Amino acid sequence: MLTFIGLGLYDERSITVEGQEALRAADRAYAEFYTSELIGTTVSDLEDHHGVEIEVRDRAGVEQHPDEILEAAETEDVAFLTAGDTMISTTHVDLRLRAHERGIETRVIHGVTAQTATSSLTGLQNYRFGKATTLPFPYAHGADGLPASVTETIEGNRARDLHTVVYLDIKVGHERAAEDEYMTADVGAELLAAEYPDLVGVAVARAGSPDPLVEAATMADLAERDFGDPLHLLVVPGELHLLEADALVELAGADRENLEIA
């Protein structure tokens, strides 16, 4: 059995009760933290809290060399852990399909996602979010300006009056970074401001933690602010319903005059 368990958004306590029970009952546990990470804890704290040993795999160890995980799951109950919800990344879907090819039974135990938490924290209605995009560090995509994947997603969503979640790049073990690197909302806003300086954005920091932060302003304004410790993301709202506009003013300090209201 291979059980995929989402750990939630912040620390060792963010996991669901169902996920905790499955993790503690597993014979072996693997994890990856290159797609996202629990900023409020460490692997050691996870192990101590749940009474398990966890082997952390890098990208190659999951995507290119998953045989150890799959072979273990053929004879044992194996837990595979990720931050957030476990099936958001195609990496994990691929691993699940490889397990099915070997006749291994799989199970998915969900965790809270950054997008659902963002909807809750900002007051933007969840059904009005369109396609999400990821804003990479400039050195990671090697082109001048914003990647087309970012601009086309934002503009396509806005044309349909939908909100856009802009995930901010994480580089774990990248050869160009001396240490793990997390794009912050001010850096992301600065990159977006080159194309959209007067467009309102919403910065969400540390969703799922005891001290989440939500601030709405123009991209040029957000680029000048400090949002504290990671993880961060940005939202580009589409045209707002009146209740959504009220929420951004009350919950995120938005200037109502800058908002596009239906």
UniProtKB/TrEMBL annotation:
<comment type="function">
    <text>S-adenosyl-L-methionine-dependent methyltransferase that catalyzes the trimethylation of the amino group of the modified target histidine residue in translation elongation factor 2 (EF-2), to form an intermediate called diphthine. The three successive methylation reactions represent the second step of diphthamide biosynthesis.</text>
</comment>
<feature type="domain" description="Tetrapyrrole methylase">
    <location>
        <begin position="1"/>
        <end position="222"/>
    </location>
</feature>
<keyword id="KW-0808">Transferase</keyword>
<dbReference type="GO" id="GO:0017183">
    <property type="term" value="P:protein histidyl modification to diphthamide"/>
</dbReference>
<dbReference type="InterPro" id="IPR004551">
    <property type="entry name" value="Dphthn_synthase"/>
</dbReference>
<dbReference type="GO" id="GO:0004164">
    <property type="term" value="F:diphthine synthase activity"/>
</dbReference>
<feature type="binding site">
    <location>
        <position position="232"/>
    </location>
    <ligand>
        <name>S-adenosyl-L-methionine</name>
    </ligand>
</feature>
<feature type="binding site">
    <location>
        <position position="85"/>
    </location>
    <ligand>
        <name>S-adenosyl-L-methionine</name>
    </ligand>
</feature>
<feature type="binding site">
    <location>
        <position position="207"/>
    </location>
    <ligand>
        <name>S-adenosyl-L-methionine</name>
    </ligand>
</feature>
<dbReference type="Pfam" id="PF00590">
    <property type="entry name" value="TP_methylase"/>
</dbReference>
<dbReference type="GO" id="GO:0032259">
    <property type="term" value="P:methylation"/>
</dbReference>
<feature type="binding site">
    <location>
        <position position="9"/>
    </location>
    <ligand>
        <name>S-adenosyl-L-methionine</name>
    </ligand>
</feature>
<feature type="binding site">
    <location>
        <position position="168"/>
    </location>
    <ligand>
        <name>S-adenosyl-L-methionine</name>
    </ligand>
</feature>
<protein>
    <recommendedName>
        <fullName>Diphthine synthase</fullName>
        <ecNumber>2.1.1.98</ecNumber>
    </recommendedName>
</protein>
<keyword id="KW-0489">Methyltransferase</keyword>
<feature type="binding site">
    <location>
        <begin position="113"/>
        <end position="114"/>
    </location>
    <ligand>
        <name>S-adenosyl-L-methionine</name>
    </ligand>
</feature>
<dbReference type="InterPro" id="IPR035996">
    <property type="entry name" value="4pyrrol_Methylase_sf"/>
</dbReference>
<comment type="subunit">
    <text>Homodimer.</text>
</comment>
<feature type="binding site">
    <location>
        <position position="88"/>
    </location>
    <ligand>
        <name>S-adenosyl-L-methionine</name>
    </ligand>
</feature>
<keyword id="KW-0949">S-adenosyl-L-methionine</keyword>
<comment type="pathway">
    <text>Protein modification; peptidyl-diphthamide biosynthesis.</text>
</comment>
<dbReference type="InterPro" id="IPR014777">
    <property type="entry name" value="4pyrrole_Mease_sub1"/>
</dbReference>
<dbReference type="InterPro" id="IPR000878">
    <property type="entry name" value="4pyrrol_Mease"/>
</dbReference>
<dbReference type="InterPro" id="IPR014776">
    <property type="entry name" value="4pyrrole_Mease_sub2"/>
</dbReference>
<comment type="similarity">
    <text>Belongs to the diphthine synthase family.</text>
</comment>
